Amino acid sequence: MRFNIVRIATSLALVALLAACGSTVKLDETPVETRTPTPVAGADGAGAAAGAGGSTAPVPQSQVTTVSVAQAAAAAAQAAGRVIYFDFDSFVVRDDARSIVEAHAKALVTNKARRLVLEGHTDDRGGREYNLALGQKRAEAVAKALTLLGAADSQLEAVSFGKERPAVQGNDEAAWAKNRRVELRDKS
Predict the structure, then answer these.
(1) What is the mean pLDDT of residues 94-100?
(2) Is the pLDDT of residue 2 over 50?
(3) Residue 119: is its pLDDT beyond 80?
């Protein structure tokens, strides 16, 4: 009985080995893929007229452009904007500023040599010292958001101008809302 089990196991192994050798792939023939450019007819049909005596220059198969990730991130940050607005008497970064913060953080992460100065501003209500402190807290809140997304502390400088540099003159809510801000400036 034991002899039959060994015999059956040996037979199955032999069948499996022979089945593996029965492949239909021809190993002596190397598959070749042609990468010769094909002429493409231009707007004037020059490519199509090549058979009628015209000359055909090889046309590249793709028009791939290399793009620097750092340049792309910097362009995205520029497009996102450079001003983050705040609510009255607040230094909490609002949800509507998320895309700006994320774009600048990505640009800072991809280009470690890039530096930003975060300029905190307030509206003209309140005392000078209070507004300087509030502007600083706003700039530091943006810096914290950027570092949480991967930017290095060494890439950021938070400063406050308080109410000294208003973006808009006026004593109404529309003017005050434009003055409660942090401006992101490239440090040279």
Answers:
(1) 94
(2) yes
(3) yes
Alpha carbons 55 and 138: distance in angstroms, whole number: 66
pTM, 2 dp: 0.62
Task: Supply angle C-alpha 56, 61, 66, rounded to 5.
Answer: 130
**Hey, which residues does 158 pair with through a beta bridge?**
118
Position 47, amino acid:
G
Domain ranges, ordered by start, for the chain = 83-186
Instruction: Find all residues with CB under 8 Å of 107, minimum gap 6, and list them.
Output: 70, 73, 74, 76, 77, 114
Is 166 within 8 Å of 174 (Cβ atoms)? no
Per CATH, the homologous superfamily of domain 83-186 is OmpA-like domain (3.30.1330.60)
Please say whether the beta carbons of 164 and 186 come within 8 A. Answer: no
pLDDT tens-place string over residues 19-39? 555 556 555 665 555 556 666
Distances (CA, A) of 147 to 12, 113, 175, 188: 64, 15, 30, 20
Dist. CA 42–CA 51, nearest whole Å: 14
pLDDT at 10: 75
Amino acid identity for residue 176 in this structure:
W
Structure tokens at 65: 């452009």
- The whole-chain average pLDDT of the chain stands at 81
